[in-house]
Amino acid sequence: MKIDHQRIVLTGAASGIGEAIMRRLAAEEVDLMAVDIQAERLQQAVAALPPHRSRIQCFTGDLSQPETVDRLLEAAAEKLGGVDIFIANAGFAYYEKLAQPDWQHIESIYRLNVFSPIYTLEKLRVFQAGQPFRMVVVASAMAYMSVPGYALYASTKAALHRFVEGVRFELDRPDQVMVVYPIATRTNFFNAASQKTPVPWPSQTPDEVARAVLDGLRRDRREVYPSLIFRSILWLDRILPFVHVHYQRKEQHQFDRWQKNA
Questions:
Q1: SS3 breakdown of the chain: % helix, strand, coil, rounded to 5?
Q2: Whole-angstrom distance, CA of residue 250 vs CA of residue 161
Q3: How many helices (H) and strands (E) does the chain have?
Q4: What residues does each domain of the chain span?
Q5: Which of 99-108, 110-119, 228-237 is predicted most confidently?
Q6: How many Cβ atoms are within 10 Å of 202's Cβ, its own excluded?
Q7: Smallest Cα–Cα separation from 56: which of 82, 23, 98, 84?
Q8: Are 139 and 161 in contact (CB under 8 A)?
């Protein structure tokens, strides 16, 4: 699909992959609603953009709450006139060893990483009233292959992966939802997960992911794998299942060292 002249909502736009996507979209002639929970940081990210062709509106809110998603879509209807592309990028991780049972701790990550994008897709199908749209869900390579320290985070991305796999049978077009599977991306994401969080190997830049997202939209992809290394690992794992086990053991050593120094 074309990107120029589209009405786009982008969540998690103030930093990381979201900010990189916003920078690329800013060079397109689009109507963009940039969304983040941190108002000041979002304003700073928008102000730091180079001269651009896009028309950008800002929306601040906590997308782990359904009423915020409702308000966001209402704002998109009022200020953009609708939604052609919704990029669900907002999310966060824990890097931890599971210890004391904590329902709220579990619920918090699921509300933003899982409930919010699923609810958004349901709302969009009603909100658009038969008008075409595309949704981009930023998942993770950990949807396929979890690593030590990220058990809860990986489970949220695996849930999205399976949800989209099933819901495609109910959609008008199988490519109506595009899922992106970044590997570890060198952003503040890891510091937000925990102090001194090690970055798994391999890793990539936010701009590499952003470029792959826009290219995937233009090519009407159903899945986007920004890392050639990860695509190769997935392929090898089909014929050599011990590949992912070897990788997980390597990350286990890194996790053990982190626990000793935490």
A1: 50, 15, 35
A2: 25
A3: 10, 9
A4: 7-261
A5: 110-119
A6: 14
A7: 23
A8: yes
Could you give the CA distance from residue 147 to residue 76 in angstroms, rounded to a whole number?
Answer: 37
Encode pLDDT of 139-186 as tens digits: 999 999 888 889 999 999 999 999 999 999 999 888 899 999 998 887
pTM listed for this prediction: 0.90
In total, the chain counts a number of residues equal to 262
215: how many CB neighbours lie within 10 A of its CB? 12
Cβ-Cβ contacts under 8 Å for 162 (sequence gap 6 or more): none
Beta bridge partners of 137: 88, 179
Match 């904590």 to its residue by tokens: 102
State the Cα–Cα distance between residues 16 and 14, nearest whole angstrom: 7
Return the exposure string of 163-195: e unless at least 16 CB atoms fall within 10 Å of the residue's CB, then b. bbeeeeeeeeeebbbbbbbbbbbebebbeebee
Give the separation between CA 202 and CA 230, rounded to whole angstroms. 8
52 near 24, Cβ under 8 Å? Answer: no
Level-2 CATH architecture, domain 7-261: 3-Layer(aba) Sandwich (3.40)
Residue 124 CA to its chain's centroid (Å): 17
